[in-house]
Amino acid sequence: MPMSVAVLSLPQLRQRLNLLLVLGASLTLSVVLITFRVFLTHKISFVFLLWNLFLALIPFGLSTMLGLSAGRLRARVLLPVGAAWLLFFPNAPYILTDLFHLEPRVGVPYWYDLALILSCAWNGLMLAYASLTDMQQLVARRLGAGAGWAFATVALLLSSFGIYLGRFLRFNSWDILTNPVTLFYDIVSRLLHPAAHRGTWGVTLLYGVFLLLGYATVRLLGRLGEERGEA
C-alpha cells in the first residue's frame, strides 16, 4: 500500500506557509546581522551563532515532517524521529544563553551586538515553540489535551536540563553517541546527589518555568487570534 500523507486544509496550509515565511524572514535578519558584522570587523566573533541556528532548525524540521505524515508512515517513524527530536530540541532554546557572550567590543556598537544576539535568541525560542506545538498536537490527538500539555511541560523541563548540560558542562547532542559514558555519569551523579548540584536544578527549574510560561503565552495568544478571526 502507498504511504499516506496528511492533506492540510487550505487555512492550515496558509497558516503553515505564513509561519515559514515569517520564520524565514527572521532567520534572514539574523544571518544578515552576523554577515555584516564580519564584513565590518573582519572577525568571526559571532559566526558560531549560524551553527546554533542550524541546530535549532533540526527539531523544527523533524516535527514538521511528523506533522505532515500520516497513517503507516507516521507509525513507522514516530518513535525514531520523536527520539531524535527530543535529543535536538534543547538546541533551540539553548540560544537564549548566548546572551552570556554579550560584552562591549571595539569596533562594533554595543547595541548592535545586543540586537544581533537577541535576534538569534528570538529565532531559537520561536523555532522551539513552533516545533513543540507540532509535537504537542500529535500527542493530544492520540491521548488527549491533558496528555499533550503534560508532554509539553516535560519536554521543556528536559530541554532546560539539556541547556545546563550544554552551557555549563559543554556537552553536545551528539555526545550521546561519541561520549556516552561521561554524559551518563554526569547525569546520574546529579540525579543521585541533587543537593551537591544545586546549580543544575536551579537552572533546570528556573529556565523550565520561564520557557513553559512563554510557551503557554504564545499558545494562548494564538488561540485568541483564532477566536477573534472567527467572530
From TrEMBL:
The keyword Heme does not apply. The chain crosses the membrane at residues 20-40, 46-70, 77-96, 108-131, 143-165, 199-218. Keywords: Membrane, Transmembrane, Transmembrane helix. It comes from the Bacteria. The keyword Transcription does not apply. InterPro entries: DUF1361 (IPR009793). This is DUF1361 domain-containing protein.
